[in-house]
C-alpha cells in the first residue's frame, strides 16, 4: 500500500484541518518539517487549549472558591466546569468524584496513601501487571516495603497480552487492590480492563486503572468498566502538563482520609482541630492548577469536536500501516504485538541501538522516543535494554509515517556501514 | 553534523569493537549503566603497580558508548592510573568546545569530540570513562 493510495482510504477525519489547529506543527527541526511521533510521552496542544489557558490569565485570572469578587467567581465557574467536563468525558456518575491532581502519578500516589495504606498490613497483597508504567508500580513497591505487604504481578505472553486466566488465582483474601494499565505506553496493548474488573469485583477487590494512554484514543466509560479508580493525565490528551485527575467512586472518596493538608481542603479550623471539606475538595489542598484545569477542559472539547472514534479510526490506520512498513525491515522486531493495540509501535533493530536510531531520525525531523519508556520490567520481560517507539495522535499522517520509514532506512544503512 | 557523529571510525569501532569481552584475570572492574537509554557495560582492567596492562569491556550499548569504550580500552593500555582523570577532564573540555584543537594525548579519542554537538548523547561518551574511574575508585566529580 502506498501512502497515496492509503490516504484515499482516510475518511471521516479531516486531518489537514486538525493539523492547522496545532501551531507547533509549522515548526522545522534540523531544517526539516517536524514529524512528531512521540505522542505517548506527551502530545502537542491545539490552539483552543493554548487560547483557553491564555484567556484565563489575560481575562479572569483569580484564585478559586475563596472570593466574592467577579474574577474569582468566573475562575471558580471555569474550574468547576472543567471538573464537570471531565466527569462527563469519563461517564462518571457525579462531578464530586473527580479530584484534580498533577497527573496519573499523583493520582496513583493519592490512592496508595489515602485508600490502601490505612488498611494495609504485613502479608497483604497488591496485584499489578508486568507491563505497568513506573507510575503504577513504584508507589506500590514503596508501600509494600513500608508495610511488609507483597506486590504480585499478572504475567503476560510474548505478544504483550496479559494471561487473563491467571488473574483469578492471583487474587486471594489478602489482595487489597488490583492495579492495571488500560493501554500500555511501552507495548501498546489495550488490556481487557472490564474483564479484570469483573474477576476482581466477584472477589470484592477494588481495581485502579491507569488511563494515561487510554483517554486520548478510547471512549472511556468508568461505569461500564466497573472499576473503582481511574487515573488521567491531561498532557497525554492534548491538555496542559501538570494537570490530571483521579476519578473514584464517591463512597471510596468519602471513606478516605485526606492525603495532603492545607487550605481549600478544610471546612473549619481551630488551633486544636480541623474538620475537612467535602469531596472532592478535601483532596485538593492548596491553590490548584486552575489554568491547567481550564486547558484540560478545552482539550476535552477538542476531542469531542473531532470525535474520539474518528480519531481512533485514523490512528488505527496509521498503526496498521506502520506495522506493515516496519515488518519489511530486515532484523527489525516489534515489541508488543497484542491483538488490540493503541497507536504505539515499539521496536528494536539488529545492529542499531535505539539511541542511535533516535539521534539519526531526529536529524530528518522525526521525533520518536528511545529507552525503557518508564516500564523497565516490561523491557526486562522482552530481554531488551531499550526500544525505539513511535506513537501517534490525531494530527499524524501517512506521509509522516513515510518520512519516518525513510529516516529509519537511512539510520539502518548508516549504522550498517 | 550527523555524518560527523556517525563518522567511519566511530561506526567501525561500533561494529567491530576492540578489546571486547570479559577478562578472567582482571584486578579491577565496574559496571556502568545508563538505564534511560539502555547502555549496560562492564569495564575490565588488569593493573600492576599503578600501570594498566590490559583493558577490556563487555556489555550492550549504543554506537557512541561502544566506540568510546573500544577506543578507551586501547588508550588505557600501558598508561599510569594517575593519567586517567586528567585525560577525562581534557576529554570533557573537548566536548564543550569542538573548535578546540585535538588533544594529542587523547589519540583517537579525539574523534569523539563530534558528540559534543549532541547534548543528549554526551552521557554516552562519558559512560566508559566514568566506569573506569569507578573501577579504580577515583572520584570523577560527575554524577
Ligand atoms: C501508561 C502511563 N502511565 C502513567 C504515566 C505517568 O503520567 P504522568 O507523568 O502524567 O503522571 C504515563 C506517562 O508517561 C504513562 O504513559
How would you describe the overall organization of this protein?
The complex is a heterodimer of chains A (417) and B (143). Chain A has helices at 3-9, 15-20, 47-59, 70-89, 104-116, 138-147, 167-170, 193-202, 222-225, 250-255, 290-306, 308-327, 354-362, 376-381, 398-416; strands at 28-29, 32-33, 35-36, 98-101, 125-129, 150-154, 175-181, 207-210, 229-233, 244-248, 266-269, 274-276, 332-335, 344-349, 366-367, 369-371, 387-391. Chain A is of the alpha/beta class. Chain A has two domains: 3-44 and 307-416, Alpha-Beta Complex (Aspartate Aminotransferase, domain 1), CATH 3.90.1150; 50-305, 3-Layer(aba) Sandwich (Aspartate Aminotransferase, domain 2). In chain A, strand 13 and strand 14 (344-349) form a beta hairpin. In chain A, helix 1 (3-9) runs antiparallel to helix 15, helix 3 runs antiparallel to helix 11 (290-306) and helix 4 (70-89) crosses helix 11 (290-306). The longest helix of chain A is centred in the first third of the chain and has 20 residues, at 70-89. Chain B has five helices and three strands, in the order ααβββααα. Chain B has helices spanning 2-5, 8-15, 63-76, 84-96, 122-135; strands at 28-34, 39-48, 51-60. Chain B is globular, with a radius of gyration of 14 Å. Chain B starts with a helix and ends in an 8-residue tail after the last helix. In chain B, 41% of the residues are buried. The mean pLDDT of chain B is 93. The chains are: A alpha/beta (417), B alpha+beta (143). At the A-B interface, helix 13 of A face helix 2 of B. Bound molecules: pyridoxal-5'-phosphate. Pyridoxal-5'-phosphate (PLP) is lined by residues 40, 103-105, 133, 135, 181, 185, 210, 212-213, 233, 244, 374 of chain A.
